[in-house]
Amino acid sequence: MQRKKICVLGLGYIGLPTAAMFATHGHNVIGVDVRSKVVDALNNAKITIEEPYLDILVQAAVKSENLIGSTEPEEADVFIIAVPTPITNDKRADMRYVVEAAESIVPYVRKGNIVVLESTSPPGTVRDVLCPILERSGLVLGEELYVGHSPERVLPGKILMELVGNNRIVGGINRISAEKIKDIYKTFVNGEIFLTDETTAEMCKVMENTFRDVNIALANELAKICEETGIDVWEVIRLCNKHPRVNIHQPGPGVGGHCLAVDPWFIVEKNPKTAGIIKMARQTNDSMPHFVADAIDGMLGESDYSRKICILGVTYKADVDDTRESPIIDLISVLGNRGYEVAAYDPHATKFSCEARSLEEAASESEMVVLGVNHEAFKKINFTELCRLTKGKVFFDLRNFMDREELERAGFKVKVLGSGKVDVKEAEAEDMAE
Ligand code: SAJ
């Protein structure tokens, strides 16, 4: 394809890899962000987020002079909006950044240009929010200015691989818009690109994440049921999944990140009366930190809430540095509100509440160690030493991640989330009797 000038608005987890990808495939890219720190970092070929191989790609893009950062947009052939779409406290989409980005390009769009919304948005956003703003340019949309939605679908931790390999949906306000957008992405996408209309594409994106959220809610509900029944949820799931058409997801302390914990609300907001299962799934997943805190209360007995809990891992999932919407951050605040002293350690993340400087500091004199996130690095812990540091010698694995026997050999009493009632108090009493 002919070399194009592409203006990417938003240099976050999606915008930056996308900008670097276009640049390393020969396009002339300007990466725009309102945060001058991020723009300065980019112009020095540095990145401010943790994502495997992204630093190498950005260095190559900046070195080739095909990628520069700026705080202001400028004239280009293609504009890609990849800004955040968070939710407000009352679970409504906060579209402020999309509106600001769209307004910022109105003075620069010219006849023949393409505008793509990549940000995950409530169905109807291109039609009802983006198009009315772009019409202010005086251009006829679909004839002089081509507009559509092409949602990103990449998994944090594997962004670069998935950006290239995944299938992609492109929804255009008309056929020609969709085809023009497809031609742009074909530059680096090896997966198939499917064309549809803009609102269908928006619905597909939010529904993909909703599908996962609802399935995880089912697994979390099952974990609660197994706990009540006194059986092991992990064994139930392992055996159920031997059925050729069953794939029960993994229970855990809740669902985090800026996608699964957010996107289902975009459907609930637009269809509040109809989206019953979707809303209930969100509430079930959000209830998990309370369920975990109740389990901790149950294991430690009613006494003294000022006891210390050590938490391993605070990010929203394994091996990333992202704590957005992390259920472990919620757990820390639930435990804090109940009066526990909490100390948390995470090898990937910094600047979170109750942060301990080291594993030793977090574990020292704690009543219980709670594994919140299945970071690979935790497998290398010296558990005998960890157990020696703690006071209560109880290990609560919220992910079924650790080798139970290894923990027991190290001296821990082990409880796994959803694995039936293990009464640690009783076990302790037995020990003392021996
Ligand atoms: N989780 C569970 N149980 C499971 C699977 C996940 O509790 O069985 C939890 C994780 O611990 C985490 C959360 O769910 O807290 C989300 O993690 P994830 O790895 O499933 O997804 P994300 O949020 O990192 O990325 C998702 C992906 N969507 C789907 O797989 C449908 C990705 O493809 C999207 O691009 C991304 O959302 C996005 O940006 O929308």
UniProtKB/TrEMBL annotation:
One of its GO terms (molecular function) is NAD binding. Residues 1-22 form the signal peptide. Its EC number is 1.1.1.3. Residues 310-404 form the UDP-glucose/GDP-mannose dehydrogenase C-terminal domain. GO terms for biological process: polysaccharide biosynthetic process. Keywords: NAD, Oxidoreductase, Signal. SUPFAM superfamilies: 6-phosphogluconate dehydrogenase C-terminal domain-like, NAD(P)-binding Rossmann-fold domains, UDP-glucose/GDP-mannose dehydrogenase C-terminal domain. The keyword Signal applies. Gene3D superfamilies: NAD(P)-binding Rossmann-like Domain. Belongs to the UDP-glucose/GDP-mannose dehydrogenase family. PANTHER family: UDP-N-ACETYL-D-MANNOSAMINE DEHYDROGENASE. This is UDP-N-acetyl-D-mannosamine dehydrogenase WecC. It comes from Peptoclostridium acidaminophilum DSM 3953. The gene is wecC.
